[in-house]
Design brief:
InterPro entries: Anthranilate_Pribosyl_Tfrase, Glycosyl_Trfase_fam3, Glycosyl_Trfase_fam3_N_dom, Glycosyl_Trfase_fam3_N_dom_sf, Nuc_phospho_transferase. GO terms for molecular function: glycosyltransferase activity. Keywords: Amino-acid biosynthesis, Aromatic amino acid biosynthesis, Glycosyltransferase, Transferase. There is one protein chain. With about 375 residues, the chain is an alpha/beta fold. The protein folds into two domains: about 50 residues, no CATH class; about 240 residues, Pyrimidine Nucleoside Phosphorylase, Chain A, domain 2 (3-Layer(aba) Sandwich). It contains 16 helices and seven strands. Strands 3-2-1-4-5-6-7 form a seven-stranded mixed β-sheet, with helices on both faces. The longest helix has about 35 residues. It is globular, with a radius of gyration of 21 Å. About 45% of the residues are buried.
């Protein structure tokens, strides 16, 4: 048992009258001790549920991010005229609405705006459709790549993916606790603003509950992050909704967030989100979008692409962004980006296999 961790647990788990928030340094220490297994299972489980009941502060999220920065992976800087957009989406996936973020990533990278994503497999508490499965359905298998290989793909295509089960295995133990507890701990909030990129980054994070936005602002401010976009998106993702006005907060030079309210109706879109069927159905729908075919999912793709083209500085406003996105889909540029990504991922993976076979043959020869 860790006496130090017990003291941190007592602070967050002592109830409304005597409980205390952790300092940034204490939150970093607690996170580090959980990831490294220095706290006992009983202590870790108790901490996660107590911290959820107490609710995290922005300062605590900043400390948790400090620990992730210290122990976790980072894609290294690439040459780019704009900050790399790092999309933070819920790790436990989607269950009700069709995700569009992989299409958004392909379109942005096609116009020279690099994108980094991160996530894992089907995870608690929702066990929804994760990014990895969507990408794999499109022919891009991120799960077999080492971090160095993912870096090579990122440098060549402008799309990076940090697959946490492989690239950050220290987090795997935390998922076992999430499953047993059946509730999202504050880690689930922190992950949305985690930045596994070492260069100039623009953090894009989704959220559900309004208080989360304030926590994000405090945490990012403490960590010196000046470029971010916070979206009250579909199922807590960065995908803009079509069934309601999109509420978005933008970082600005002043201490106050710049608020943007975007109504789909004002831009000619019907107020309807596309329901999520099977992954196979979604992949077919995405392929239709990439082919330039008209559909409900294409409307969602244009709505989101228009915003992110504008937000990245690639277009002057939403309307020109939407028009540019429609042109990119119809011309086949976005579909070509997917084919490039597939080829590069496969080439990098094959090169690694060839190297392993060569090393294995050399070892056998040396031992014979």
């Amino acid at each position: 048992m860790s006496i130090l961790f017990r003291d941190l647990l007592k602070k967050v788990g002592s109830g409304n009258h005597t409980g205390e928030n952790l300092t940034r340094a204490e939150a970093a220490t607690a996170t580090r001790m959980m990831l490294l297994g220095e706290a006992t299972p009983a202590q870790i489980g108790a901490f996660l549920i107590a911290h959820r009941i107490k609710r995290p502060t922005g300062e605590e999220l900043a400390g948790m991010l400090d620990a992730f920065d210290e122990l976790g992976p980072k894609l290294q800087p690439i040459s780019s005229a704009r900050p790399v957009m790092v999309f933070g989406l819920p790790y436990d996936g989607r269950t009700r609405t069709a995700p569009i973020s992989p299409v958004t990533a392909l379109l942005l990278s096609a116009v020279g705006q690099p994108v980094v994503m991160h996530g894992g497999d089907r995870l608690p508490t929702k066990y929804g459709l994760p990014l990895r499965e969507i990408w794999q359905g499109l022919g891009v298998n991120w799960s077999t790549l080492s971090l160095e290989q993912a870096q090579a793909v990122f440098a060549q295509t402008g799309i990076g993916f940090v697959y946490t089960p492989q690239h950050f295995p220290l987090t795997n133990i935390i998922w076992e606790y999430r499953d047993q507890l059946g509730k999202r701990p504050p880690f689930a909030t922190m992950e949305l603003i985690w930045c596994p990129y070492a260069g100039d980054a623009h953090i894009i994070a989704g959220y559900v509950h309004p208080p989360t936005e304030g926590m994000f602002q405090v945490a990012l401010g403490l960590r010196g992050v000046t470029k971010f976009t916070l979206v009250k998106g579909l199922e807590g993702s960065c995908d803009l909704p079509r069934d309601r006005t999109a509420i978005i907060s933008l970082s600005s030079a002043s201490p106050e967030l710049e608020r943007v309210f975007l109504s789909p109706h004002d831009y000619g879109f019907t107020p309807k989100n596309v329901p999520l069927g099977s992954n196979e159905e979604l992949v077919t729908q995405i392929q239709d979008v990439l082919a330039g075919n008209s559909s409900e999912l294409q409307q969602t793709a244009l709505w989101n692409a228009g915003f992110y083209l504008w937000r990245s500085g690639s277009c002057a406003d939403m309307r020109s962004g939407i028009a540019k996105a429609e042109e990119l889909f119809k011309s086949g540029v976005v579909a070509a980006k997917l084919q490039q990504l597939i080829q590069v991922v496969n080439s990098v993976a094959e090169k690694n296999t060839d190297n392993q076979l060569l090393e294995s043959g050399q070892e056998v020869k040396a031992n014979s």
